[in-house]
Amino acid sequence: MVGSGAVLSVWLIEEINMERGYWIKSKPVYTSLKWHEKATSHLVLATGIGGMAVLKLFQQMHPTQPVKVLYGKYGQMEADYSDTLKMVVPEGLHIHKFDDALLTQFQLELRDAQMGLRIYVAGSEGFIWDVVAAAKPFGIQEMEIMKEQADTLARSVYCVHCKTISKYVTTNITACCGCERMLFVRDHFSRNLGAYMGLMVDAESPGELPAIEEIYP
Amino acid sequence: MSTINVKVAAIEAVTPLIKHFTLVHEDGSELPSFSGGSHIVVTMDAEGRTYRNPYSLMGSPTDTQAYHISVRRQESSRGGSLFMHEHVHVGMRLKITHPVNLFSLSKLAHKHILIAGGIGITPFMSQIEDLKRVGADYELHYAFRAYEQAAFVNELEEMCEGHLHCYADSQGERIDLNALLSQQPLGSHVYVCGPSPMVVAVLETARNLGWPENNIHNEEFSSPPVGEPFKVQLAKSDIEIQVPAEMSMLEAIEAAGVKADSLCRGGVCGRCELTVLETDGGIEHHDHYLSDSEKVSCRSIMPCVSRTKGKRLVLDL
To answer: Where along chain B do the CATH 3.40.50.80 domains lie?
Structure first.
């Protein structure tokens, strides 16, 4: 089947290209957390299995500068590192049950912070970009925040048609939670929205859908 | 590169060493608008050679009737600034490039810390106009040898109101960079323009205090240093050019009639980068563009400021 329309050909091209060597510049590449050598203080944020990244940070060393860790034990996975973190991080650890509370504390910390504070985040991609969005009003740019992706590969998907963001999408094609259009989940990522672009997949031949597969478990 | 023909409308000696030139369009029309921190390259046709020197625009970016540049007399340089001081007179025609900004203000910054040393004050004068227009938070820290030699202090006091902090070396006043940069709110950006040791000190202090690279900005045009004469072979053009001691390689290439790309002519922008095919003596990199590892590899050179230590250099041009 060859798509004649622009919308259809996007996913065809992307699927073909995804075979080998395919790479799109906008797709974030995450790292393993590592302390910045130069800093006046550190602020570490993590959820769920991202707690392991925090433990690994403290395996590297316990920095001489002040450190605060905000940990959320919610998330997709059951993994909860609260108890271990309490032992490893004797002071400056704050545990939250809900991400709203964690992000509220994050913004309170930023309000009085000064240049020299370095920020680290480990968790699902959704959490990472929630943190980026919370930091933005403080003049913090996304590339200043060190990010480790842990937990699920699930994507936030921005519907280019109705502008709704569907969260925790694990499949190559998903129904938009705003307009119910069937969207192809692209690799094209918006750092501003913290979401991947989703394009209607059956615009030209309604109901004709490629196989739906879970590829972002 | 397309140039603009301008006429010198006024020359004012700001200090014994600094002259302020007002340039207007040759035919009286408007000049292109620009953003704070932009510079132009002025072409000077001297006896037997051409100088092309970059100068920051220091007038208001909203004033398209005239451009303002200030030139410090550099006795021990190759002659461009001496030519401006001694041979350029009111009414004279000059060629300039369109303004280019390699030192722009960050639109995302919440606060701007501007640090100037000596004649490095010029790009900030146009930036302050921009900052005032948008009501941005800023501080200007201006260091100089002595009040008698400092340019534009009175103008700046008026422009900046309470935002200006002056430091006269003659009175033992120094900027305490550590104190200044360790107590700034998140979202601050620091900008420095001045002599090389000052730029290095600001960059090092900011980095040591954990400032992200994105928040650190510097403008440091190097004037091409005087070096040993050498020969450069241009492989594609199939010619050999002699580079005299007091001429940059880019100027020698241009004088030989070979077309070479360039923009800032001060080792900052990277536009003139050339691939080195062969060298027998290594390269004296004077630019601020290539990374340290690129400099060590000797595969690229910025002909606007860099030279070779050897006798022979082959370039892919």
So the answer is: 111-219
CB distance A68 to A109 below 8 Å:
yes
B181 lies within 8 A of chain A by CB: yes
Domains and CATH numbers, chain A: 6-27+153-200 (no CATH), 41-149 (3.40.50.80)
In this structure, which CATH number among 1.10.10.10, 3.10.20.30, 3.40.50.2000, 2.30.110.10 belongs to the domain B230-315? 3.10.20.30
pTM of the shown model: 0.86
CB pair distance less than 8 Å for A114 and B108: no
Q: pLDDT tens for residues B34-90?
A: 999 999 999 998 887 888 899 999 999 999 999 999 999 987 777 789 999 999 999
Distance CA B305, CA B199 (A): 18
- What CATH architecture is B3-97? Beta Barrel (2.40)
User: What are the chain B neighbours of A39 within 8 Å (beta carbons)?
Assistant: 210
Residues B214-273 have pLDDT tens digits of 999 998 766 778 888 899 999 999 999 999 888 899 999 999 999 999 988 888 889 999
Bridge partners of residue B25, in order along the sequence: B6
Do B182 and A114 count as a contact with CB atoms less than 8 A apart?
yes
- Look at residue A197 and give its three-state secondary structure: strand
What ipTM does this complex have? 0.84
DSSP H or E run through A15: helix A6-17
d(CA A181, CA A120): 36
Question: In CATH terms, is domain B111-219 a member of 3.10.50.40?
Answer: no
